[in-house]
Specification:
Blueprint (H helix, E strand, L loop, with lengths): L2 E2 H11 L4 E2 L5 E2 L4 H14 L6 E7 L5 E3 L4 E9 L7 E2 L13 E3 L5 E4 L8 E7 L16 E2 L6 H17 L21 H18 L10
Parallel strand pairs: 7-8
Antiparallel strand pairs: 1-11, 2-3, 4-10, 5-9, 6-10, 8-9
Length: 219
């Protein structure tokens, strides 16, 4: 189920103990809509290694290379439609001859290249991808941006966004010096917002760690 950026912003603002400023666009007393959108983009990148978006592309015809889909993060497998079998990935090992049959590699950047042309049936590419990022037009109307992540990723994205916003916004503020303290024992806390950011980041790591690691394809 898709989540609106407005819903996420309200949750992030509550996490950093700020005040919601009703828009449009919805902002916070210390956090702009643009900064919140930047935080979401950072969070969508952070979750990719453990929870990527899944995609499928059809490679048509007897080709020996194919432009990879935009946003591809990692190739999971390539299925030869003439045999119904998954193709092996090329192994770059010196003085070892390659196996018989068609193999693939993701060199050069942005392409998948085959050791020989596919059959006329082509192949199916299974891959992991980045989640949809905010684009330039989303910064003009940020509340219209829709997160396409599933509901179980809402909390990790929320925690990472809050951590990003806390350290990004308040680390640049000259006002943080008023929080510097002097204590007789222990370490003083010069920047409580950094402490908050670190805490939220640890909570993100706990939540993302709860997700079951998906088994990668065997090449």
């Amino acid at each position: 189920m898709a989540t609106s950026f407005e819903q996420l912003k309200r949750s992030v603002i509550e996490l950093v103990a700020d005040t919601v400023v009703e828009g449009p666009p919805i902002e916070a007393g210390q956090l702009s809509a643009r900064l919140l959108l930047d935080g979401v983009a950072a969070a969508l990148t952070a979750i990719c290694q453990k929870a990527p978006k899944h995609g499928v592309a059809v490679i048509g015809g007897a080709v020996d290379s194919f432009d990879l889909p935009e946003g591809l993060y990692e190739i999971s497998g390539v299925k030869d439609l003439s045999t119904g079998l998954f193709l092996e990935r090329m192994n770059f090992v010196a003085n070892v001859s390659s196996a018989q049959g068609v193999q693939w590699t993701d060199f050069p950047q942005g392409k998948i290249t085959f050791s020989q042309a596919l059959s006329t049936y082509g192949a199916t590419l299974f891959y992991d991808a980045l989640w949809d990022f905010p684009g330039p037009t989303d910064y003009d109307n940020p509340d219209d941006f829709v997160l396409d992540v599933p509901q179980y990723l809402f909390l990790p994205v929320c925690l990472y966004t809050a951590s990003y916003c806390a350290i990004k916004r308040f680390s640049e503020s000259a006002e943080i010096r008023q929080f510097a303290t002097k204590v007789d024992s222990g370490d003083p806390i010069d920047n409580p917002f950094q402490v908050l950011s670190d805490f939220l980041l640890r909570r993100f790591e706990v939540e993302i760690g709860r997700l079951q690691q998906r088994q990668r394809g065997s090449y």
